Amino acid sequence: MDQLLLQEVRRIAGQISNEVIFYRRHLHQNPELSFKEFKTSEFIAQTLISKNIQVEYVKEGIAQTGLVAYIKGKNPEKKQVALRADMDALPIQEQNSVDYKSENEGIMHACGHDVHSSSLLGTAIILNDLKNEFEGTVKLVFQPGEELIPGGASLMIKAGILENKSIKSMFGQHVAPQIEAGKVGFRSGIYMASADEIYLTIKGKGGHAAMPDTTVDPVLIMAHVIIALQQVVSRNANPKIPTVLSFGKVVADGATNIIPNEVKVAGTFRTLNEEWRAEAKKRITKIATGIAESMGGTCDVNILDGYPYLENNPLLTERAKEYAKEFLGEENVVDLDIWMASEDFAYYTHHVDSCFYRLGVRNEELGITSGVHTPTFNVDEKALEVGSGLMAWLAIKELETELS
After folding, report:
1. How far is CA 257 from CA 9, 57, 75, 211, 327, in A?
2. What one-character DSSP code corresponds to residue 111?
3. Rg of the chain over CA atoms, in angstroms?
4. What whole-number distance in Å separates Cα of residue 147 and Cα of residue 341?
5. C-beta of residue 358 within 8 angstroms of C-beta of residue 337
6. What are phi and psi of 254, to 5 degrees?
7. What distance in Å separates the CA atoms of residue 365 and residue 369, rounded to the nearest whole number?
8. How many other C-beta atoms are found inside a 10 Å radius of the C-beta of residue 326?
9. Which pLDDT score is estimated for 403?
10. CATH number for region 194-304
11. Which residues participate in catalysis according to the annotation?
12. Is 265 helix (H, G, I), strand (E, B) or coil?
């Protein structure tokens, strides 16, 4: 029976592949920023409704623009599996020369959320066609704001989407430009890092650059602070705990002959351990303020708590990996290393057994090799068929699994 159902999932995924590509191109052409995905959400809702799929959708949306849909199989109260896709785009000007290039100035689906959402639409169609072949309910979560703190996932959870105790597991997928299209990747246990945003305002006393003795130079203080903070990683962090501290923005609005009154610095702190995360943020604050004061200035430290670390449930992930091998063949399922990027899917992993895996989208022959968050990011669209079909198969197999 399983083999017949497997063949059906594959068949439908192939049959609707062009339709799913259309969805992806429409979303790619019409990207919207975090928590502003109004047209995106409406398009997804109307597409689901046109397929006679039950949508929980109100004018205001869930967490502003989110929505939830349901595929109910036989005996729908028996068990529930949740599937998630994010919908938001990034503030990047697209540089690809494609027919479906972004029409919204300075906004682009450079992280593959158009792929995630269109793939989940495909998954919905497959599951809806096969709803008489499985028991339980599949909950489809279309989530806003993954790219922006506090993260749409945290708001969707606060809105109550996980309150139904029958949700036994949750799956999410993310494009992987380093993995060839047609393949997927899994990792059990802790997989992705927490991420906090660090904002420093270093204040001194500005003046003429030719008379530095009359100033308290915040640019010099900034240089000492940034260098000293590297010891948080090199000397304070346990070498067994992956840790990253990086600063990507420094604004010292002076000139060749002007020392400014203040300098603003922005960066990120990432790790895989919550106790160390809390301790490190205290050390960052102490070092930055102490050095600034020792040099005659001050440093205001503002650390915005970002997403927690993402942990894939080991038992669920091992099952999912085996399901993927059934669907794609063992040679198309790869193991992943720890990734120090962050994802707000992490919030779900701290509430329900979850598995977040990677969907290969790379095609070197077509020149599709750019990384996410770049203006030339693109995908081999054959990945959409894999994304739709595999997630449907994961849901069906997980609904079959009897857990004690």
Report:
1. 68, 58, 75, 9, 65
2. S
3. 24
4. 12
5. no
6. -110, -145
7. 9
8. 15
9. 56
10. 3.30.70.360
11. 307, 381
12. strand
What would the two tokens of residue 34 be?
């975090």
At 266-277, the pLDDT tens digits run 999 999 999 999
Q: Would you give the DSSP letter of residue 177?
A: E
Evaluate the CA torsion angle 166, 143, 146, 302 in order and state its sign. Answer: negative
| DSSP E strands, 53-166 | 54-56, 67-72, 80-86, 137-143
Q: Chain centroid to CA 101: how far?
A: 22
Give mean pLDDT, residues 322-343.
97
Angle at the Cα of 172 from the Cα atoms of 143 and 195, rounded to 5 degrees: 75
pTM for the predicted model, two decimal places: 0.94
Give the pLDDT of residue 60.
Answer: 63
**Model confidence over 157-214: pLDDT tens digits?**
999 999 867 788 999 999 999 999 999 999 999 999 999 999 999 999 999 999 999 9
Quote the CA–CA distance of 303 and 262 in Å, as a whole number.
Answer: 18
For residue 96 the two structure tokens come to: 């690809």
Angle, helices 17-29 vs 113-129, to 10°: value is: 150
Domain 2-188+310-400: give its CATH code: 3.40.630.10
Q: Which of 9, 161, 155, 22 is nearest to 83 (CA)?
A: 161
Torsion of CA 378, 390, 84, 61, to 10 degrees: 80
- Say how far apart CA 172 and CA 166 lie, in whole Å: 18
With beta carbons less than 8 A apart as the criterion, state whether 333 and 320 touch. Answer: no
pLDDT score, position 57: 58
Tell me which DSSP letter residue 44 carries: H
Query: How many CA atoms are closer than 13 Å to the CA of 368, on its beta-carbon side?
Result: 20
In the numeric block, the tokens 């998630």 are attached to 84
Q: The tokens 């899994």 sit on which residue?
A: 186
Sign of CA dihedral 369, 375, 381, 387: positive
In this predicted structure, what is the pLDDT of residue 402? 73
- Summarised one tens digit per residue, pLDDT across range 223-253 is 999 999 999 999 999 999 999 999 999 999 9
Pairing mode of beta strands 54-56, 258-259: unpaired
pLDDT given at position 1: 59
DSSP 374: S
Q: State how far the Cα of 80 lies from the Cα of 161, in Å rounded to an integer.
A: 12
Q: Give residue limits of the domains in the chain.
A: 2-188+310-400, 194-304
Measured between alpha carbons, how far is 112 from 100 in angstroms, rounded to an integer?
A: 14
Quote the tokens at residue 9. 């999932």
What letter would DSSP give residue 271? E
